[in-house]
Predict the 3D structure of the following.
Amino acid sequence: MTDPDFLTATRTFYDAIAEDYADHFRTDLADRPLERALLAAWAELVTGTGPVADLGCGPGRVTARLAALGLDAYGLDLSASMLAVARRENPHLRFEQGSMLDLGVPDGHLAGILCWYSSIHTPADRLPGLFAGFHRALAPGAPLLVAFQAGDVPRRLERPFGHPVALDFRRRRPQDMAELLAGAGFDVRSRTVREPEEALGEKVPQAFLTAVKPV
């Protein structure tokens, strides 16, 4: 598969900032009780015995959370530097390098997919294919959880932590994302949107969609 420019840009960005990113967000979930509750509730929807994929796992903090909730979780990420952090800090878990746009798993293999703020660098015209790939990879009845920043205006982040890289962070409307998921064959089960927490540096609402592949 060819490597589109946005994948190269995303990989380069996170390779450059991996250590600083991991340090900055190390206790991120500790400050977000709603997110912890959503992850726990979603984990209860996972009833299959197959693996659960944390796609765009970064340094693996949410992968570890899923494992602590009793799931057979593994992480997938583009960035070798992010994966090095994830493997160092979670040596008991499995982490693989790859693109969530090209999941190398058999049809119906996964018992769940978490897409935690990892579709935010995917161009809008690639989202239908992304969600179709998720649908193919999930077992019937398996759940999907997608988290993203809500809004219309993208944010371009330049020189994070002083590193000479930049990347676009795409915000989405929850209704639009729900329609894309339905178009890919999912049943959308819940939509949660909360207001931004300025103390945590947030500027826009945060959205969380839970969907299930029909049996």
In short: The chain has six helices and nine strands.
